[in-house]
């Protein structure tokens, strides 16, 4: 029970966290990509600001304020040791000239307490702390009275010592300038990243739009691959899928159009045979045998054509791909050819344990259709295979008359038959299956003097 309760609590927490993330995070891919780029950039700028402000700026500020407090303390000590008016005047002028300060002693005056007079950064706190540690009399620092100057007032027993210093003597650089630079550079980089990411997302949107239109039957032109490498690969894969589907639909449409044409001939013969049957009851059975044999032949022909159409229409899409040894495929095909009296052999298979991943029954049908087509045009058939870099090549060679170069593409079309009584679907079925496996099938001249069928499949 305790384990079930803990599991339910964990599942509930994950669901709540997922809903919260969906509410907070942007829904679009562009928004999420910008967020992914903006958060690290913002964190980097914040760390840089902290390192600069917390280390370098504070160290330099403490050193500058310490030097200022030391100079004022030494001047006060000199004024206390040499109290004559002439000496005081010389001390103030000499110390001011050497330190780059303007020092004035206002005798008889008292220091008036004023409100808070802080500025951005650590310089005001550092100077106040150093003055308190170095000077034993009350002090006040006015950061805003004079433009680009700092007025330091020290209450002495004889009056108020006023020290005017340039602000750059204490301030390294305005903190707001560094903050503005960090924020501005982050915003600029964010905008540049947004422009680049927008181009990537635009390519994805075009791909999604093309897929939607293609699914609705509104065929469009092929997508121009653009954007990142992965998006380009997706666009190329979509174009290939689009071509395969269009070719598939075109082939099925051609088959449906050819069914009515091819079946019309035997149906017409059957109709004529039935019309010519004698109407009289005085007909012997042996007189009808030739007509019945002709009608049975027409029915067998129709069954053969319909079986070919169904084989072409079914395909092998529902079959699960498995690992297939090429040599086993060859042995089955060679054994079947030898049973019908054909001369068949297995050539080189490199390497000997060469295998492919595909739908077993479909690839057997491809090989059987190819060798059966070769058997009707040749007396010798040789099977061989080899492995390429990323594909496997299967060769079917024969010693027949070959195929003219002008017909090497058309023989793979439906109803292109080179023998009497054929449906012309064997090689069309083979090409359809090979394309479904992501491969290619073609014809060329073979080493045996006839044709060579080359089947290329992914390794």
Automatic annotation (TrEMBL):
Location within or outside the cell: Cell inner membrane
SUPFAM superfamilies: ATPase domain of HSP90 chaperone/DNA topoisomerase II/histidine kinase, Homodimeric domain of signal transducing histidine kinase
One MF term in the entry's GO annotations: kinase activity
Catalytic activity: ATP + protein L-histidine = ADP + protein N-phospho-L-histidine
EC main group: transferase
Primary localization class, coarse: membrane
Annotated InterPro entries: 2C_sensor_his_kinase, HAMP_dom, HATPase_C_sf, HATPase_dom, His_kinase_dom, HisK_dim/P_dom, HisK_dim/P_sf, Sig_transdc_His_kin-like_C
Protein name: histidine kinase
Organism field: Komagataeibacter melomenusus
UniProt lineage: Bacteria, Pseudomonadati, Pseudomonadota, Alphaproteobacteria, Acetobacterales
């Amino acid at each position: 029970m305790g384990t079930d309760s803990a599991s339910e609590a964990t599942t509930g927490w994950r669901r709540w966290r997922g809903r919260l993330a969906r509410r907070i995070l942007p829904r679009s891919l562009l928004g999420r990509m910008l967020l992914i780029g903006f958060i690290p950039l913002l964190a980097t700028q914040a760390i840089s600001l902290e390192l600069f402000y917390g280390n370098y700026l504070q160290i330099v500020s403490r050193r500058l304020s310490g030097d200022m407090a030391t100079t004022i303390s030494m001047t006060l000590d000199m004024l206390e040791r040499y109290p004559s008016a002439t000496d005081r005047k010389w001390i103030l002028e000499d110390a001011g000239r050497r330190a780059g300060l303007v020092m004035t002693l206002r005798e008889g005056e008292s220091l008036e307490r004023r409100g808070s007079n802080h500025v951005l950064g650590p310089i005001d706190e550092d100077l106040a702390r150093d003055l308190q540690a170095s000077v034993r009399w009350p002090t006040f620092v006015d950061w805003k009275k004079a433009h680009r100057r700092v007025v330091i007032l020290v209450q002495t027993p004889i009056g108020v010592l006023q020290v005017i210093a340039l602000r750059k003597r204490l301030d390294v650089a305005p903190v707001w300038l560094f903050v503005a630079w960090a924020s501005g550079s982050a915003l600029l980089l964010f905008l540049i990243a947004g422009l680049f990411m927008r181009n990537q997302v635009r390519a994805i949107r075009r791909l999604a739009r093309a897929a939607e239109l293609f699914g609705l039957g509104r065929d469009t032109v092929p997508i121009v691959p653009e954007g990142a490498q992965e998006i380009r690969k997706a666009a190329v894969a979509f174009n290939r899928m689009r071509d395969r589907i269009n070719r598939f639909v075109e082939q099925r449409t051609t088959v449906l159009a050819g069914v009515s044409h091819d079946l019309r001939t035997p149906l017409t013969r059957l109709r004529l045979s039935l019309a010519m049957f004698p109407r009289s009851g005085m007909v012997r059975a042996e007189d009808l045998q030739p007509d019945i044999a002709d009608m049975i032949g027409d029915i067998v022909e129709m069954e053969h054509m319909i079986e070919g159409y169904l084989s072409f229409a079914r395909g092998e899409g529902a079959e699960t791909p498995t690992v297939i040894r090429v040599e086993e495929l060859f042995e089955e095909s060679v054994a079947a050819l030898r049973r019908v009296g054909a001369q068949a052999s297995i050539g080189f298979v490199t390497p000997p344990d060469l295998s492919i991943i595909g739908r077993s029954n479909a690839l057997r049908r491809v090989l059987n259709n190819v060798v059966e087509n070769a058997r009707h045009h040749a007396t010798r058939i040789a099977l061989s295979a080899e492995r390429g870099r990323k594909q496997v090549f299967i060769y079917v060679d024969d010693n027949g008359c070959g195929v003219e170069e002008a017909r090497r593409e058309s023989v793979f079309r439906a109803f292109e038959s080179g023998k009497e009584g054929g449906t012309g679907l064997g090689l069309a079925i083979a090409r359809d299956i090979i394309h479904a496996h992501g491969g290619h099938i073609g014809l060329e001249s073979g080493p045996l003097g006839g044709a060579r069928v080359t089947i290329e499949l992914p390794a």
